[in-house]
Write a structure and sequence with these properties.
- The chain has 755 residues and is of the alpha+beta class.
- Helices cover 49% and strands 8% of the residues.
- A hairpin with a 6-residue loop joins β8 and β9.
- α11 (329-342) crosses α13 (368-375), α20 (475-498) packs parallel to α23 and α31 packs across α32 (717-728).
Length: 755
C-alpha cells in the first residue's frame, strides 16, 4: 500500500533534510535456519517484527528458531528455509514523547514504520494531565482543558508547542487513501481553545480519515489477539505451563544480573513506572548534577524528591541520566525538561530545586536555577549543598593536597595500613577530613617512609620524595594542616548530616547555625590554643618554629613577589582569620533575605519539644510564598484550622516524641490526621519537597562508575540509564511483579504463545 515516497505535505515543495534515525533504532540480520534446540531468549529483548505493506495486520513471516523455541514451548518446524531478512528494533524510551518533537511517521523508511508505530503505541499518547496549561489570546484568554483528555482518548498535548495533536492520525493518516491535504492535528498542532467543537469536526463521520486511522490503530494495538499465530496455536495447558516456567526462569536471571549492576539489555520502564505511580499527580522537587563518565561524556543525573501518599515520608528517587552535549545552563534545562516530559511529568509541578554551587547551576542571571524559576516561580532554590561547602574547604586545603601525593603513599613500606591515607574523591568529601586526620597521626611514619624512598628509591621517586619531605617538614605545612583539620572537624558533622536522605530543612538550618557559632568562637578565642598545639607538634618532630615578631620567609618563592610582613600578620591575619572569615561569609551568602524568611517560617511547624517553636503568624506568612496553592478562602480556613491543629498535636501523646517534619508527616498519615487537616498537611509537604542536599545525585555518579567501568566503557547511554535505574532503585525494582514484565514482553509484537 505504501511506497517509498512519503505522502505528507512536507514531502511536497523544498527538499527536507532526513533525520538521523540511528539514535532510535538498531538493525540486525536474522535467518530462520538454525538449531531447533536453541536456548530460550530473554523475555526483555525488544523484538519487533513488522510487515512492509499494511499496518493493520501482523507479519506472518516465521520468527527465528530461538524465538520459536521460547514462544511455542519447544515446538519448532525448520523444514522451510527462508531468505535472510533484516529486523528493525525500536527503543521505546528513546522515542520523543512530546508530539511537537516527533519525526513524521512517513520520514521513517517503509520497512521501519510499523516498528516505530508499535513503539509509540507502547509509549501511549502524551497527556500531561497535571501540567499548568498556559493561557493565550484566542477570543479572550483561553487555555487547554484537561477534561478533553477524558472525552477523546486519541488527543495529545505538546508542552513544547502549546498545541493539541491527534495520536492515531500521526500514526496512520498518511496510509489512508482518502487523506486530503494537511490537518492542524497532525502538522502544526491545534491551538484554537475557544473552538472545542473542532475536535468533533476532526473526528468526522464513519468513513472519515480519522476513524479509518483509529481502526488501523486498534488493529495494530490488538494484533496479538487477532494474529494468525494465535488462531493456529492449540497449545495444551502443559505446553503453556512450560513456556511460562521458562519465562520466569529468564526473569530470575535478569533480576540477578541487574541487581549486581551488570550490563544487560532491557528496559527500566516498569521500575520507573512504579516511581511515577508512587508520585502520582503531586508536587515534587528536583535535584540535578552533571559529571563525566569513564568515556569522558558529560552526563546529567536527575533525582525526584516528593512525599509518598501511602506513608507520608520524604522520598528521593532516581529518575534517569541523560547525555548532554555541553554544560551550559540552557542545555541542562532542556535536558531536564525532556526527561520530565518523557515520563509525563509537568515542569509546572516543581516546587523545589537543588544543585551544587557551580555558576552554571546557581547563577542569578542565566543559571539553571534562574531559568527554571522563570517558568515555575515557586520552584524555590535553597543552597544547602554539602558538596559546595566542601569545595570551599578544598580550595583552602589546596596546599595540603599539593604537598602529598596520597595515592602513592597508601601502600608504602612501614605505613600503618589500618590508618592508611585515602585518595581524595570527587563524590566522597569526608575523605578530606579523614585523610588530614591520618596524616597528622601518622606523621613520623610518613617521614620515615619518605626518607627511605629518598635514599633507596628510583631516581624519579627519589626526586618526588625529597620535594614532598621538604614541604612536610615546614611550619607552613604543619600550621595549614592543623588549621584545616580543626575546620574540617567542626563542619564534618554538618557535612555527614546533609548527606542523609531523611534529613529535613529545619534540622539542617539548626546545624548550620551551630556550625557558624562554633566557627565564630574559634575566630575570636581559638588562636592561642591552636598556636600552642602546633608549636608542641613541631617541637616533638624537630620542625623549626619561627618567631612570630620576625619577618615572614616564604617557602619555595622569592621574597620579591611577597609583601613584607611579620609571621604573626601572615599566619594569624592572612591565614587563620582569612580562612575562617571566608567560610563564614560563604555560609551567609548561601541564604538571601527571602530564603532566610522562608526557612524561619518553616521552623515554626517543627514538632520538636512538643511544638515549642510554633508561631501562627509566621505559618500564615509561609502561606504567602505559595499563592497558587492557597487561595484567599484557603488562607481564611487555615487561620482557624491552625488553632485546632496545635491543640490536637500538643494533647495527643502520639505526637510528643517527634523531632522533625518528616516524622510529623508520617505520623499524620498514620493517624489519618492528614485528611482532617489537609491545608496544613499540604504546607508540610511543600516544605519537605525543598531539597536539602545533593548527596542523592552524587551517589548516582558513584554507582555510574561501577556500572560503566573501564571494562565496559563502550556502553550506550540508554543501556547505562536502564541499568542504573534498576541498580539504584533496587527496592522498587524488586516490587515489580513478573506478570507485568511478561505482559510488557508479549505486547511488543504478536507472539504465538499467549498467557
Amino acid at each position: 500500500m505504501t511506497n517509498d515516497t512519503p505522502k505528507s505535505s512536507k514531502s511536497k515543495g523544498k527538499q527536507i533534510k532526513q533525520p538521523d534515525l540511528r539514535q532510535f533504532i538498531f538493525k540486525r540480520k536474522r535467518s530462520s535456519e538454525g538449531n531447533s534446540c536453541s536456548s530460550p531468549a530473554p523475555p526483555n529483548e525488544n523484538v519487533s517484527n513488522e510487515s512492509n505493506d499494511s499496518p493493520s495486520f501482523p507479519s506472518t513471516s516465521v520468527p527465528q528458531s530461538q524465538e520459536n523455541d521460547m514462544e511455542m514451548g519447544g515446538s519448532n518446524n525448520n523444514n522451510v528455509p527462508l531468505e535472510e531478512e533484516e529486523e528493525w528494533l525500536y527503543d521505546v524510551e528513546l522515542l520523543p514523547h512530546d508530539p511537537g518533537k516527533r519525526i513524521n511517521i512517513m520520514d521513517y523508511p517503509p520497512k521501519q514504520r510499523n516498528a516505530a508505530r508499535r513503539a509509540y503505541i507502547l509509549k501511549k499518547p502524551c497527556q500531561p494531565k497535571i501540567h499548568d496549561f498556559p493561557q493565550r489570546e484566542c477570543g479572550g484568554l483561553r487555555r487547554f482543558s484537561v477534561n478533553w483528555f477524558k472525552k477523546w482518548d486519541w488527543l495529545e498535548y505538546s508542552v513544547e508547542k502549546d498545541a493539541a495533536f491527534c495520536f492515531v492520525c500521526f500514526l496512520f493518516k498518511n496510509d489512508i487513501e482518502i487523506c486530503a491535504g494537511g490537518d492542524a492535528f497532525v502538522n502544526e498542532g491545534f491551538r484554537s481553545w475557544n473552538k472545542p467543537d473542532r475536535f468533533e469536526k476532526h473526528v468526522g463521520g464513519i468513513k472519515s480519515a480519522h476513524n479509518l486511522a483509529y481502526e488501523k490503530y486498534v488493529n495494530l494495538k490488538d494484533a496479538k489477539e487477532k494474529s494468525i499465530y494465535v488462531a493456529m496455536e492449540n497449545a495444551s495447558d502443559v505446553v503453556r505451563s512450560e513456556y511460562e516456567l521458562r519465562l520466569k526462569a529468564s526473569l530470575t536471571c535478569l533480576r540477578f544480573l541487574l541487581l549486581q549492576g551488570l550490563a544487560f539489555r532491557g528496559h527500566d520502564e516498569k521500575t520507573t513506572k512504579c516511581i511515577i505511580e508512587e508520585l502520582g499527580d503531586d508536587y515534587f522537587g528536583i535535584l540535578a548534577d552533571e559529571s563525566s563518565d569513564v568515556s569522558q561524556k558529560e552526563q546529567l543525573a536527575l533525582v525526584l524528591r516528593y512525599v509518598d501518599r501511602k506513608f507520608g515520608r520524604v522520598m528521593e528517587r532516581f529518575l534517569g541520566i541523560i547525555h548532554v552535549g555541553d554544560t551550559t545552563a540552557l542545555s541542562l534545562k532542556d535536558a531536564i525538561m525532556t526527561l520530565l516530559m518523557d515520563h509525563s511529568l509537568s515542569p509546572s509541578m516543581i516546587r523545589g530545586q537543588g544543585y551544587d554551587g557551580a555558576s552554571n547551576m546557581k547563577g542569578e542571571i542565566n543559571g539553571l536555577k534562574t531559568l527554571i524559576m522563570n517558568d515555575t516561580p515557586r520552584a524555590y532554590y535553597l543552597e544547602v549543598s554539602c558538596k559546595r561547602r566542601e569545595m570551599i574547604r578544598e580550595s583552602q586545603a589546596q596546599k595540603v593536597a599539593q604537598a602529598l601525593d596520597l595515592g602513592e603513599l597508601e601502600s608504602g613500606s612501614g605505613l600503618n595500613q589500618e590508618l592508611g591515607l585515602k585518595r581524595l574523591r570527587d563524590t566522597r568529601w569526608g575523605s578530606h577530613y579523614k585523610s588530614l586526620l591520618n596524616i597528622i597521626h601518622l606523621f613520623p611514619t610518613i617521614v620515615e617512609v619518605l626518607v627511605h624512598i629518598g635514599k633507596h628509591g628510583s631516581s624519579e621517586d627519589k626526586f618526588k620524595a625529597q620535594i614532598v619531605l621538604g614541604s612536610l617538614e615546614t611550619f607552613d605545612f604543619v600550621f595549614m594542616a592543623h588549621l584545616m583539620l580543626a575546620i574540617f572537624g567542626y563542619t564534618n558533622d554538618l557535612c555527614v548530616a546533609l548527606q542523609r536522605k531523611e534529613q529535613d530543612i529545619v534540622n539542617a538550618m539548626e546545624l548550620v547555625s551551630y556550625t557558624k557559632i562554633v566557627l565564630q568562637k574559634m575566630r575570636e578565642q581559638g588562636w592561642e590554643a591552636l598556636l600552642n598545639k602546633i608549636t608542641s607538634f613541631c617541637v616533638k618532630h624537630g620542625i623549626v618554629v619561627p618567631t612570630m615578631d620576625a619577618s615572614y620567609v616564604p617557602q619555595g618563592r622569592s621574597r620579591r613577589f611577597v609583601e613584607q610582613t611579620t609571621n604573626l600578620q601572615h599566619f594569624r591575619v592572612d591565614i587563620f582569620l582569612g580562612v575562617i572569615d571566608l567560610h563564614l561569609q560563604e555560609l551567609d551568602n548561601r541564604f538571601n533575605e527571602r530564603n532566610m524568611e522562608l526557612l524561619t517560617c518553616m521552623a515554626c511547624l517543627s514538632p520538636k519539644d512538643n511544638f515549642s517553636s510554633f508561631d501562627k503568624d509566621k505559618v500564615l506568612k509561609l502561606v504567602t510564598f505559595y499563592p497558587e496553592e492557597f487561595s484567599s478562602l484557603d488562607v481564611m480556613s487555615l487561620e482557624l484550622q491552625l488553632d485546632i491543629f496545635i491543640e490536637n498535636m500538643r494533647s495527643d501523646n502520639r505526637f510528643r516524641d517527634l523531632n522533625d517534619l518528616n516524622s510529623l508527616s508520617m505520623k499524620l498519615v498514620e493517624t489519618n490526621r492528614h485528611k482532617t487537616y489537609p491545608l496544613i498537611f499540604l504546607l508540610i509537604k511543600l516544605m519537605l519537597i525543598l531539597p536539602v542536599a545533593t548527596a542523592s545525585v552524587e551517589r548516582v555518579f558513584s554507582k555510574m562508575t561501577y556500572v560503566k567501568s573501564k571494562l565496559r566503557n563502550s556502553m550506550g547511554d540508554q543501556l547505562m540509564n536502564d541499568c542504573l535505574v534498576t541498580f539504584i532503585e533496587k527496592d522498587v525494582f524488586l516490587q515489580v511483579p513478573d506478570k507485568d514484565i511478561i505482559d510488557r514482553f508479549q505486547n511488543m509484537k504478536a507472539r504465538r504463545m499467549q498467557l
